[in-house]
């Protein structure tokens, strides 16, 4: 059969020439070729289609030759039918026109382009005739009586809507700019806030009350604190102040725990001085007469020093001027109490460490109060003064001879201590004292330390220090004997 523009193809087996329709049929039907009936039907349909269809532009009865020889529609109007050549020509004209409009900035088309094609001109004429016929059939509408009223009502409604929108615009803008006003808090919310504040303030108030209680106990029961000026009246005046912050309370508590009473008193006095005059607590009440005060208060207030100076001369030394020595004496008492619980394990180690620390301090420079202040032992003097004042009331005749005096030499103190039962029980024998006396020399710090132990009655620690000193020089009691 004729290809009518189709491309010839060969049979894959016999290599005979086949039209494209037969080759497509062969591929779709597993290698079979169309029979004569199908071929005649295809030719008849092609002839009928060719007779019915013609090109709108050139009037051809066939679509033409090429890769796609089929009828096409108009690319703009969609009219039927166009051959391949006419359709391609119209496409090229449209592309050229679009390119020119893009280059000239959407300028109107040229006269040649403005001339409509015959088919388009015919369609435009038909549309114009149909519109004229419709206008002749439908008479012009005449405005009735209700038309002006409806127009006025519509215009009035539109004007009212515009006015209302313009009036509501500032209100809407003001609402957008103004922040939202919250409702007042409920009573439950206020109560919860108060409870939270109380819970936050509770620890600080508890620490403040605990510090006041500790200060009262120290002022009433610690002689060294009373000697530094920590009196119950001062504590009472300090407790009347508003509670300080947590950091200041912790600082005062640390000073109290380290037995730094002088710095503690200075901090309390500074806090009292910082308060305005109208907020300062009233001055403490006037003290009683000297005759009504007990002996311990006489010693702490300094009044009993004049009375005791005639009977106990060593108590008249200034107590406030030796604050550091009093603190060291209290620390020594604590060490003695610890040593009494574990005498065999800790005494020698403690004393040797103390002696080594004294040597390091002497090498590096003065790191503490000088030897005369260490020898005074004010805490022991305060305790001795209290005991002496009590003994004056009971036995006035026996109060003039204290067992150990500060003015005595170290060797005299050792000689007197050998006759004390507590010293003998601790191991301070005459042989040990004689061996210690035979040492070539003893520096001032060690001598002051040993003198302080003897004055405080720490005989066990004194014996340990003496034995450690003898061991350091390689001396033994056998050599002394």
Main β-sheet: number of strands, strand sense, barrel status?
Answer: 2 strands, antiparallel
Rg = 62 Å
Task: Give the overall silhouette.
Answer: elongated
Mean pLDDT over all positions: 67
Order of helices and strands: EEHHEEHHHHHHHHHHHHHHHHHHHHH
Instruction: Tell me the strand percentage band.
Output: under 5%
Strand order of the largest sheet: 1-2
Helix amount:
55-70%
Number of DSSP helices? Answer: 23
Structural class from helices and strands? mainly alpha
What features would you describe in this structure?
With 481 residues, this protein is an all-alpha fold. It folds into three domains: 9-87, no CATH class; 205-279, no CATH class; 295-480, no CATH class. It has 23 helices and four strands. The strands form two sheets. It has a two-stranded antiparallel ribbon. Strand 1 and strand 2 (17-18) form a beta hairpin. Helix 18 runs parallel beside helix 21 (444-456) and helix 20 crosses helix 22. The chain is elongated, with a radius of gyration of 62 Å. 20% of the residues are buried.
Please render the helix and strand layout as text.
Blueprint lengths: L8 E2 L6 E2 L1 H9 L7 H17 L19 E2 L6 E3 L1 H20 L7 H4 L3 H20 L8 H32 L9 H35 L1 H5 L4 H8 L6 H12 L3 H14 L20 H7 L1 H6 L14 H19 L1 H22 L6 H6 L1 H17 L15 H8 L3 H6 L3 H8 L6 H13 L2 H14 L4 H4 L1
Antiparallel strand pairs: 1-2, 3-4
Helix pairs in contact: 7-9, 7-10, 9-11, 12-17, 14-15, 15-22, 18-21, 20-22, 21-22
Defining traits:
disordered C terminus; two-stranded antiparallel ribbon; disordered N terminus; 481 residues; 64% helix; single chain; two-stranded antiparallel sheet
């Amino acid at each position: 059969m004729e290809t009518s523009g189709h491309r010839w193809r060969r049979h894959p087996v016999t290599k005979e020439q086949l039209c494209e329709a037969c080759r497509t049929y062969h591929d779709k039907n597993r290698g079979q070729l169309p029979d004569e009936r199908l071929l005649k039907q295809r030719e008849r349909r092609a002839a009928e289609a060719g007779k019915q269809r013609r090109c709108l532009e050139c009037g051809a009865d066939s679509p033409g030759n090429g890769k796609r020889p089929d009828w096409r529609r108009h690319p703009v109007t969609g009219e039927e039918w166009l051959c391949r050549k006419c359709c391609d020509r119209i496409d090229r004209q449209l592309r050229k026109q679009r390119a020119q409009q893009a280059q000239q900035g959407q300028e109107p088309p040229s006269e040649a382009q403005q001339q409509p094609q015959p088919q388009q001109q015919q369609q435009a004429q038909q549309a114009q005739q149909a519109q004229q016929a419709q206008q002749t059939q439908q008479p012009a509408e005449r405005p009735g009586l209700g038309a002006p009223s409806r127009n006025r009502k519509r215009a009035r409604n539109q004007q009212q809507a515009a006015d209302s929108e313009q009036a509501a615009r500032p209100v809407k803008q003001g609402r957008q700019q103004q922040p939202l006003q919250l409702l007042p808090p409920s009573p439950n919310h206020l109560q919860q806030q108060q409870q939270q504040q109380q819970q936050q303030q509770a620890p600080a108030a508890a620490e403040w009350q605990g510090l006041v209680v500790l200060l009262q106990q120290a002022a009433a029961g610690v002689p060294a604190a009373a000697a530094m000026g920590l009196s119950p009246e001062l504590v009472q005046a300090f407790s009347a102040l508003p509670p300080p912050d947590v950091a200041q309370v912790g600082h005062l508590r640390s000073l109290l725990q380290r037995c730094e009473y002088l710095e503690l008193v200075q901090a309390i006095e500074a806090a009292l001085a910082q308060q305005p005059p109208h907020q300062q607590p009233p001055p403490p009440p006037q003290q009683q007469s000297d005759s009504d005060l007990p002996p311990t208060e006489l010693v702490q207030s300094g009044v009993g020093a004049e009375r005791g100076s005639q009977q106990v001369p060593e108590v008249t030394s200034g107590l406030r001027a030796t604050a550091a020595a009093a603190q060291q004496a209290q620390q020594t008492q604590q060490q003695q109490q610890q040593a009494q619980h574990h005498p065999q394990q800790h005494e020698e180690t403690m004393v040797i460490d103390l002696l080594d620390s004294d040597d390091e301090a002497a090498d590096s420079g003065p790191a503490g109060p000088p030897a005369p202040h260490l020898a005074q032992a004010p805490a022991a003097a305060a305790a001795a003064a209290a005991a002496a004042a009590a003994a004056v009331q009971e036995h006035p005749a026996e109060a003039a001879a204290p067992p150990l005096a500060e003015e005595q030499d170290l060797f005299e103190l050792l000689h007197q201590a050998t006759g004390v039962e507590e010293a003998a029980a601790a191991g301070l024998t005459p042989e040990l004292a004689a061996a210690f006396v035979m040492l070539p020399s003893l520096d001032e710090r060690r001598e002051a330390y040993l003198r302080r132990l003897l004055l405080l009655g720490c005989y066990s620690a004194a014996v340990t220090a003496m034995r450690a000193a003898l061991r350091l020089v390689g001396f033994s009691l056998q050599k002394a004997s």
